[in-house]
């Protein structure tokens, strides 16, 4: 697909996303919808289109806005060289920038010219909103050499701020040019914001905007009168060590040994499934802990309405990685579930301790047990805290509130671009 021709008086934003759409990244779809609601013309640039997930965006009419990052490089080497020479001749007006672009790379490749010309088509755009700092290339280079005109807004989401990123990207001035040449750097919590400042982000460019949710969708549940029913717990997230689901299961084991009536539903899939499944079977917890796999947003909302308390047992990994926000924690509170969570990373910013739930010492499943026993002994507080949780989310994390912050950032970037 070729870039859409900009309409007269159009205000244009391109969202740069590594792969799209992911089931676990509905917040990105929400961000795109925010830009559309604010009156911007939008395109979505991605290296990989996940075709089996297109149903996630078809209902929002986003499929027609997708651009695949393809450089149209001929496979035949001779044809590739001839086309490269032809393109160089026809773009001689950019020769100074092309030379600078090549000099910014450590080796020579014909690909760099095809890449340069692909991105040159964006120079009539007002804003490029990059999702994940690791998606910076080649925009950081194009900005550094003075060629790229759109303003850059970069949203970091957590793992992209802790080195080695993905286990292999080292911090060898990795973000220096991005921080220098971006209009705004966005972190989702103060915890992530501090990490970005420590990496060299300029304070005046950093803005903290949480990932919001649709509170019209995640609505306050109807509370049912309970009689000798178990305390129904739920947690949602990929089955990964950073999510610490094993600590949650250990807490259930301890509560069952103390003859408390509890159950836990774990939503998600991932590499930790065999570990969790084995622990459940080894300790005969099949009747109390259910691994239900991946669910849609609608299914998750339905599950929230059938449970009492949300738990999040995220931990710090040996390489220092931590959760920076925790979207499901907010969605659960919006539905009226109080939260019990380990105090790690940016989780503390997603609830109000002792008001909308409880923070526990990280990795301490015994502390987690005691907080859950509080709800068992005080069932009326589930509803009271749940209502407080819903109010908290409405004021701090509703898309209807956060859209005002995005309106200000986009407007400022747009006005700078057209100066």
Biggest pleated sheet: 7 strands, parallel
Shape: elongated
Output the structural class.
Answer: alpha/beta
Number of strands: 13
Strand order of the largest sheet: 3-2-1-4-5-6-7
Radius of gyration: 24 Å
Helix content: 25-40%
User: What percentage of the residues does DSSP assign to strands (E)?
Assistant: 15-25%
Mean pLDDT across the residues is 94
Q: How many helices in DSSP terms?
A: 15
Low-confidence parts: none
Structure keywords:
419 residues, seven-stranded parallel β-sheet, six-stranded parallel β-sheet, elongated
Short recap of the structure:
The chain has helices spanning 26-37, 55-58, 77-90, 95-103, 111-120, 139-144, 176-181, 190-198, 245-257, 273-282, 297-305, 327-334, 365-377, 380-396, 399-418; strands spanning 12-20, 41-49, 66-68, 127-131, 151-155, 184-187, 206-208, 231-236, 262-267, 289-293, 309-312, 339-342, 357-360. By secondary structure, the protein is α/β, with parallel strands linked by helices. The strands form two sheets. Strands 3-2-1-4-5-6-7 form a seven-stranded parallel sheet. It has a six-stranded parallel sheet with strand order 10-9-8-11-12-13, sandwiched between helices.
